[in-house]
Structures are given as structure tokens and as C-alpha cells.
Amino acid sequence: MTNLYFSPCPRGLEPLLAEDVTAAGAGNVKPIAGGVLFSGSLETCYRVNLDSRIATRVLRQVAQGPYQREEDIYHLAREVDWPRLFKVAKTIRVYVTSIKSPLKSLEFITLRVKDAVCDRFRDLGGERPSVDTRNPDVRVHLFITVTDATLYIDTSGEPLYMRGHKIARIEAPIKENLAAGILRLAGWKPGTPLLDPMCGSGTFLLEAAQMSLGDAPGLSRAPGEFGFERLLDFDAALWRRLTVKAAEKRLSPDKLPIWGSDISRDAVARAQQNLAHAGIDDLVELRQADLLTREAPAANGLLIANPPYGERLSDQDEMAAFYPKLGDAFKKRFTGWDCWLISADTKLPKLIGLAPKRKTPLFNGPLECRLYYFPIVAGSNRLK
Asked: Whole-angstrom Cα distance, residue 246 to residue 282?
């Protein structure tokens, strides 16, 4: 049976996600702002959940139609055969996303969709599912535009960027799917030397190591954690075959050409804890070091970093002093390296004193950023 799906992802990574869903066997693949629309079977759905490092969720469409008022959406949701999708004993939560909708209260729409789901169950047998806003078994998503409403059931459960590896976090991390997308946009391939000299909690290191090992990101989830496992059409035999096949592809190298460092002792400790929790702390070299003084760990490779950027004036002043030193460090110690920096600071190229070869727009959550590419070559590629 073929279903319609929408998979959201960080804005700017839609072409990469389109590649992922196509590789999973999807048809009618259509990238749109913030995600990808596609059609496919249950196997396609399972494979995107299992294999994609870019997807945030995989949402299966269950209804779509025009609306003019709140009750139109209630009736649209009421017509869905929810008892065919999941058991009444499962807890639910409704999420609503609106783009230029004329309706005044998203909270009221959320309540009406919940009522519609519960009323459909009550019509069948008198019982209705309970609501759990913290850890629901089943997530129902409503997307409303100016004229149309679309209902989805979530096949992923928790967001797919929650790999289960990071137990020690620091402030303002880059989510795992954005980190994986940045590595792909930068053209990094397993086996290429990689350094994150501002590694924080180790997100880039974890993603690169898992990619090097051939680990499907969905394998790290415990049984029952995916949303599709709680639906009545869950094909346990098919899911078992897919996970066994994915596990057989995992490699077992002795060491990886991946290095991480941070000037903060606490950040290094957190990254080390996360690498150990993922079982790869013996494969990645990690140490405390200042990027401005550390040496390149190889003759050439790819450097990726999310340098600090502040919104307060004092932070901006500190950055204005830091960036020129960073440019000098690149020129002195990283000749032959491809350096990639993600930043929301559009003044970065001028302050760092290097001319970027490429600037790629990306969003880190709601924050608009640029991914800057600086190939460090002998001689000078400084801004005039």
C-alpha cells in the first residue's frame, strides 16, 4: 500500500533529504521549504526512519482538505478512521503548525482536533484515548495554510535527531541532523581526516564517526521507541529484516582519522562522556586545546567548526577581536585544509580576513546562518 508522507528537516538541507528518501525507495519526491513530500510503502517509511541522518520526522498523511472555520477542521479530523490506525489504550497529543492561517487560536484548533479523534473512538465503543502532553504514544500533526488543512500521524515518535548518544549537553548545540547535513554539504567522506577544534559536546564528531562506521542512526533506538511501532499496521517482521540488514553493514575499524578539541575543559569532558556512551571513545582522539595555537593533526583534511557568535554587544566586541586571530591561525597552521565554519554572523568573512569560496544559507532552528567555505592554500586568499 502506498501512502503520502511529509518529512521535515532543517531549512537548507531539503535537497539532501530528497536524496535520502529517494534512496529509501520513495516516489513523487518533492522538496519544499522545510522538508520533502513523497509517496511510498511501509518499507519506505521504515527505511527513512532508520537510515536518514537528515530527516527530523516522517509524517504519514491521513487527511487533507480546504477549510474556512474551525469546525471544518474538526469534521476533517472526525472523518479519519483513527481506530483503524491505533488502539484506544494509546495516549495521544496533537501538534498544530500554521502558515498564514486566518484562524485566531491555535490552542482552540488543537483542542478541536483532539476532540475529533476522541469522538471517533467514542462513536465506536464508548472509550476515548487519553492525552499525554509529555510522552504520548501517538502524535497527530495538523498543518494549516491560508486555505487548506493537512492531518498527519507521526511515524517517528521523538525527533530523529535524538540519536540517543548524547547524555551530556552544553548550551546552544547544533542538532545532529544539521551537523550531518553540514558534513555532507562540505563534501566530507569517511576516511577523510576531520577536525572539529571547537567540538563542544561532540555533535560533529559523533555524526562523522557513525557515518564512518556505517551505522544507521535509527539502530540506536530501543525497541518500541518509533511511532510506527505503536500503530496497528506495524509490520514487525519487515522492521526486523531491515534492522538486521543495517546492523550487518557496521564496520569495526581500530581508529578513525577524526579529531576533536575545545578550549573548555568542561566541554571536552562532556564530549568524552558522549563518545563513551556511543561506544566510540577509543576511535576518536579528543583533547583540550585552543584553536588559535593547536597544530593540524594531518597534512590536509577538513576542518569543521561552529565558532561562538554573540547577540550582546560585549560578545560582538569579543568576536571582532577573535576572528582576525582565527584567520591567522588558519593561514599559519592549516595550509592544505578545507575549513568550514557555520555562523549567524554575516560579518565573519570580513572579520576573519579570508575570502570564502562558498556561502551556503542554512537555519540552525529559527536562526539564519551561513556555512562558509575557506580553502586554505599557500600564498594568500585574504580579503583586500
From this structure: 23
